[in-house]
Amino acid sequence: MGIVLVWKWLLFIIIVCALGANSEAEAQPSAADDRVTKLPGQPQVDFQHYSGYVKLRPQDQKALFYWFFEAQDEPSQKPLVLWLNGGPGCSSVAYGAAQELGPFLVRSNGTQLTLNKYSWNKAANMLFLEAPVGVGFSYTNNSDDLYKLGDEVTANDSHAFLIQWFKKFPSFKSLDFYIAGESYAGHYVPQLAELIYERNKRASKESFINLKGFMIGNAAINDETDILGFVEFAWSHAVISDNLYNNIRQECSDFKQSETRINCVNLFDRLQDAYSEIDIYSIYSPVCLNFPPNTSLKLNKFPSVLSRHDLWHRLPLGYDPCTEVYTERYFNREDVQRALHANITSIPYPYTLCSDVIRNWNDSPDSVLPIIQKLLDAGMRIWIFSGDTDGRVPVTSTRFSINKMGLKIEEEWRAWFYKKEVAGWVERYEKGLTFATVRGAGHQVPLFAPGQSLSLFTHFLSATNLPSSRS
Q1: 49, 187, 341, 443: which is the annotated catalytic residue?
Q2: Per the residue annotation, which of 320, 386, 390, 401 is the catalytic one?
Q3: pTM of the model
Q4: pLDDT tens digits, residue range 169-179?
Q5: Is residue 390 annotated as a catalytic residue, yes or no?
Q6: What is the residue extent of each domain of the chain?
Q7: Sign of the CA dihedral 66, 72, 74, 78?
Q8: 33-50: per-residue pLDDT in tens?
Q9: According to the model, what pLDDT value does residue 253 have?
Q10: Which of 92, 119, 158, 183 is catalytic?
Q11: Alpha-carbon distance 290 to 213, whole Å?
């Protein structure tokens, strides 16, 4: 009789454990469950891709959406790269993956996707993340979370995502890991890198992330010099008059205090109005004439930390200036969402490229230069790049910001080449920092200069110098 009771008890334990395992499996689907097999309009390819949700923590109600593309060749031998777009509030899936550097691009209002021959998954396994909650398909079942967002929450949630994502994809955990991004990801990328660096010091084998470095493009990294460069670029590219430029320099000499001065605010309104008829993110590109004007693209606030949420998320319309419209329509299709395992909770608002539901942005430091300096000192590889026709986070801003760091130059400013043409200019600094421009590219460098951007990315990953000749 005692033996029977023992066996019943053991059977009970086995059943409970099995139920627990099944419950955990339901809460966090496996990688196989997330494989994408019937994406509408997708060209045929030989590599695998996956998309879906990662629940962050048992105690909260957040889930972040990702789209992951294995490298086209030998994925087990290639690094893993996380790509982040900025905003705050813009989608890395709709911009990075679908318009810039992913393998499948939305390039028309039709049903077919375009195969990107310059996709970055030629060089690496590429992971695109929609963060924080409220961006794209990422969601929370607690609406209060939308009022608590900021740089710190975004970094913490992105780190929690990575820990859980590697549980789904354990074979990628040992690979070299890098982070890349653009625009306000000039905050996201260094902040997440710093968080990983600090938590790695006390991490278990299961939670250690093999971070090697990061790269950021047309990136907001230091408010004071970002604003100074914004003004200098507009004047040097003949967007504003000498008179307006001189008045701004006189009235707004202290950029940290300028937004409290009415005269200065009015002058910046005039500067922003000067961009109202062109695309500030690619000043020589055409604007979209096939659809009603998007008035939200007009900048209407002083460019400062206090108004950054209203400014940084106005991303460019694209090389085809109507690409944003096509992309938003594509991701709102029910068949597309089903194929991507997206919107499984029936989110009560349409998919937008930049979020309309984020209610507040609670923290945003004036500068991330101290973080960049700290991680350079820690031995991380850091590259900063800049498309030189972007007026919003222009090359002048980035140059002023890097100069503020006071780093020793190891290789002087020189041209670098792609297909025997000058692709831009590059300067290398001590401790592993490289700064490169991309000639003729706007805010979204991979969109405007796809071949050059893939070359830049490949050289970053291999830690090799950009080509110095036409050969």
Answers
A1: 443
A2: 390
A3: 0.88
A4: 999 999 999 99
A5: yes
A6: 1-30
A7: negative
A8: 999 999 999 999 999 999
A9: 77
A10: 183
A11: 41
